[in-house]
Amino acid sequence: MYSSIIQITITILDIFLVLFAFGLAYLIGIQRQGFEGIEKYLWLLYFSIPFIVFCLFRRGMLTGYRYRRKGEIFFNTLFSLIQAGILSSAVLYLFKAEYYSRLFFGVYFAMAAVFVVAEKMVVKSLYDWALKKGFYNIQAFLIGWGKRAQRIADVFSEAPQYGVRVISVIDPRETDMASIVRTIQKNKIHEIFIAIPRGEYYHNHIDAIIRQIEPFGIPLKTVFNFEDIVDMHAKRNCKVGDEEALLLVHHGLNNDQIIIKRVFDVLGATVGLILSSILFIPIAFAIKLNSTGPVFFAHRRIGKNARAFHLYKFRTMYADAPKRLEEIMANDPQAKQEWEKNFKLKNDPRITRVGNFLRKTSLDELPQFWNVLKGDMSLVGARPIVQKEVSNYYKDRAGVYCSLKPGITGPWQAGKRSEIEDYSERVELDRWYVKHYSLWLDVKIIFKTIPSVLTRKGAV
Hints:
- By secondary structure, this protein is α/β, with parallel strands linked by helices.
- The chain has 3 domains: 2-132, no CATH class; 138-229, Rossmann fold, CATH 3.40.50; 255-316 and 351-454, no CATH class.
- 57% of the residues lie in helices and 12% in strands.
- The chain contains 17 helices and 10 strands.
- It has helices at 2-33, 39-58, 70-94, 102-132, 146-158, 177-186, 200-213, 255-290, 321-331, 333-342, 353-361, 368-374, 390-394, 398-401, 411-414, 423-435, 439-454; strands spanning 138-144, 164-170, 191-195, 220-222, 234-240, 243-249, 296-302, 308-314, 378-380, 407-409.
- The strands form 4 sheets. It has a 4-stranded parallel beta sheet with strand order 2-1-3-4, covered by helices on one side. Strands 5-6 form a two-stranded antiparallel sheet.
- α1 (2-33) packs antiparallel against α4 (102-132).
- The radius of gyration is 29 Å and the shape is flat.
């Protein structure tokens, strides 16, 4: 009931601010363009306000601020207003409302966004202040042990704005269930958190713990521990037919991110191909003059969802490179050990003189812009690896790697990659990228890659 009242109050406040933005935009329109008759524009409110409320509700911006950070609220609110603006403009387009001023429409949604975002920031600040002062605080028990349990205890002790006080951390291995029940009965508890690592104890006792606590009617939050067996990213409730289920998805992108990343890739690859096309002919001539064989080299790599694709490069090795590698493996034990460890050789004798220059300048990778346009790769991503690397690269967690497209560049290429000798370091860099993907991270990696390539600090 309490949260419903807050949600209704915030919704009414949102609508009032949107109406105020509409009126202000109309007054500006009168000053600039001499609007006549506000009734001609009122019908915009009939669908724009429902769109705004729906988009805010869809992103959880009408209530539930206790566990949300200001940055999350800011971007979700702003994105909700942008979505509502796009939907509203689509309605105007479909009804061919040509008399609508674009200036009025733009000022209306811009002001609505400013007002509503500002309101959310104020509400969040007031809510955090109230929680810090002890209002609306809740008391909780934490049942469990290990890293997750410690992180939960730490975050609530270090962040009073959550308004959660963990009054007891109980390790169920060191006490019996009857004692836990008595402790719950003696204290006024609003929530109970369970953070028990997977293992023999979890499988043998978790059901009994939940059954003993359930009669108290206290909200029970069980921390997901699927990471103990699989490296999944998204975990959310879903339905399989009429049955409740839990959706587990590898680290991937939501629908909005997929669209944004693909647009970013297509635009970047198109510009890259146009700018680099003037280099293709001189590079092709240099390759042909230096050694026999094709200009381009297609190599089988592993992409998203473990699908194989052909990665294109300018050829940098002699045409008989596979045969030369076999001879090196047979006659040079040290080189064999180096190859098996890192899948590369220092001072590789298979690389041509022109190929060595192309690699140092990263010009050999220009044809990969075509891979990006085809959809096999992204501008930024993990390293495109070969099949035999999968077992060593991610062992039993290759799904993390395969959840995103590999990239022309990435965190490894953007740094001093020639200085990273440890194979596991490269692995962890790619794992980190997959887990922390954002468009802003892609932009930062691209800007770091450019000087790395120009100065050849990242050359191998």
